[in-house]
Amino acid sequence: MSEYPVRKEEIDAAALLDRLAQHGEAEVYELRSAQVPLQFKSGKLESARSSQTVGRAVRVIKNGRLGYSTTTDVTDAQTVVENALAAAEYGDLVALDLPGEAALPAMERYDETVAALEPGDLIGMGEAIVEAIRAYDPEVEVNVAVGRTVDEVTVVNSRGLRRHDRRTSLSIGAMGTVTRGDEIVIVGGQRQSRRREEVDARALAEEIVERLRWSAETVQVKSGPMKVLLRSVGLAPLMLPLQLGLNGRYVYLGTSPLGGRLGEQAFDPRFALVDDGPRDFAPLSAPFDDEGVATRTKTLVDGGAVRQFLYDLKTAAQTGAQPTGNGFKRADLFTAGFHVPPQAAAATWVVPAGEEDLDAVAAGLDEVLVVENVLGLGQGNMMAGEFSNTVAPGFLMRRGEIVGRVKDTMIAGNVYTLLRDQLAAVGHRQEWVAGMVYAPGLLFDGVSVVAK
Amino acid sequence: MVNQKPGFLAEKPGFFVKGGNVRDQMMKALSHSHADFTDIRLEREWRTTVQYRGKNLENLEASVGSGGIVRCLVNNGWGFAVFNTLADLPGRVEEAYEIARLVGSRTTEVVELAPVAPVDDVVRVQLERDPRSVPLQEKQALVQGYNDILLGYDPRIVTTQARYTDFFKEVTIANSEGSYVTEEQADVTLYLAATARDGQDNIQTGFESDGRMAGFEAVQGREAQAEIAARRALDLLDARPATGGVYSVVLNPRLAGVLIHEAFGHLCEADFISKNARLREVLRPGRRFAVDELTVIDEGYLPGLRGNYKYDDEGTPRQRAYLIRNGILEGFLHSRETAARMGAAPTGNARAVSYRFEPIVRMRNTYIDKGTVPFSDMIRDIDRGIYALDAFGGNTMLEQFTFSAGYAYEIVDGQIGGMVRDVVLTGNIFDILKGVDAVGDDLEIEGSAGGCGKGGQYPLPTTMGGPHVRIRNVAVGGRAS
Is A345 on the interface with B (CB under 8 A)? Predict the structure, then answer.
């Protein structure tokens, strides 16, 4: 007899669906993930992990009521079926219209060269970044995280939908820390894509070195209204509230400041926004969402006017709208995974490039506060569009030249007011914001700045 | 009835088997490891969630999960293997070993583990009402009741969020030094929020948030909290937005806890500094960071509080750690590795949010110790200040940090005045604690329904707290000025 329990046969997603479908409309979502993340601390390789995980989430609608359950055991159908049915007994009355088979957009999300990356290859990428930053200054403490993932996603439902998909992902994050007495300068950056050639370790190292160079001096700004250039992750305080405001769920709940304003001029005419679910190789891209609905490219804001909100199946059913392929297993900035119930959420966002060369614009200005990242994302009254964040890092630019980093400095404002009344210029060059948004820098007038 | 009776997974051969067989499997797999050090952590979990949004029951869920992680240390390199099935434990140990060997061959680091005496222990929780035996319908009905209070409080309330979660976990850790620990962990949370709206732009949310290591009983009878959350949402509609500037600020115990968690706690997690010689120079024990009256403690094991367990995720018994004693930096929070590197004793702070991650250095129950100043004395000599309460959250990046109040009041000429909103505070560790000039004579340590995030591991249950504290010269962000 074996020392270890003989593992029962796996019950595949379709067989599990058959069990559920005896009780009502049903759906099975499955994610199998093979991940290799590794860590460098203070320039030295510390650890690597090989992670082979599986998770399943099921939904069943019995007598019109919805039940939800998740499990990690693919050999056991009984527990997850019983749990889902128990939840359905008291669950929400909902007219969820599960999708059937439909055409999918042609798009790229699997790169064999990413899937083929061995731990040794990833170590080499991390070492290259450490070396490049240390070549600038051997005193810089460099932490690096490199990881590659191959995901296999299955979505099947009782309307005959059978979706299966493979996606790759490669990411590098790096952070350089310089300690000068009681000054601690931290500069970080990251690259993430489903395609290897879009993850440029050298460019990331160069970007960090440039920011460290800009941080050689610490300068003070005076409290009061300033011209502020938000770029890279510095755009996140604007994008996060908009991801709530343009979400059909919050329109339905009555808390979106944009609710009921389709077609209305809510923003500066130079501002536009596109939700690009099937964008090739983008980290959030896929041909179908986590409910199996085909993704598509949609204009949300055009010439400053609101054109479209985002819907998952449930919100679409509640509001009589069409699902937009935005049902994702992401609850907020920090919570995502197979266990999260699908809900309306943004896919890749694209802010179309404007016409201004921001370097040239800044050269004509006495002072601009350049914000590339902030502390305190997701705190405060995001629903109303309020933000108040510590800039980290932020740089002061005089007549187009960076003169140093600022610290202990906050920016505050309201996203809706800023994008309607205070937009000074839209840059002509787009950059990735944490792999989620592709946007040019945005320059604003009269942003409230508090410096200590 | 939900299939959630304790131990039901034990009847399934897929992962765990009856009797002591899991132990045998773990020991056998460990005995075959060629690594310098190996440990295996297995977890199984039971969860339910009831979440209302507005009039809809957005999620009603009963879920289970199980998985494990092997850690191997080979020639100063760490390798980890994460899995969901126990079917081939020796294979997973081999996988972790091979990765560790590769890492060890490419690193110049020296890794040692501070000694911890092997432990053989089983820790079961005692709960008044084990959530796994409470019918799902009872949970749903309880949350619906709270949601009805929130929704019905006032016509200006446009939507609500009433969320209940329970989480029961059994963790088993075995290592190549002979430790074998099984510990149960129980966690319940309740989040009650109301969103009120006045016109297009004035949208305000009041919330009450609680998390405890307790059974279902801990979240029953909270009708008053629902009313408080709804009332606060309405009050916030009439509150003025904060005017940006530098203020004297009084923090209530919850927000004082968030301050110390963000401003100092994270910095004292030794994995941030153990390999950074310059940072260690700046953060040298014996350096003064605050006034004499300020003492900061990370408490290992306070039964009943969230995130409190007897052993950490390396099987180290948890110790109390003084971060600051009488204004002087005293010590750090350690895993076995950081303790060895810094010549300290392990404090039992190596924690993982789940089996999908290796343990890293985290806080537990972090608080400012009680002082002597009554609240009334604290506000008496403030001409223009802010009394800030509760927290939306906080965020830190070593030297700089920020945290935001759930709501606040202005202080004018020594008196509490009108309500203000959107109060976000920022600071720098090298001066904020020096600005603390009064430490209150009260003390509260509390959990919330959220958790702490670090290195992609979120939400980890922690608690934080303190007395009321007063801080001079704090920068508060605000769009008005």
Answer: no
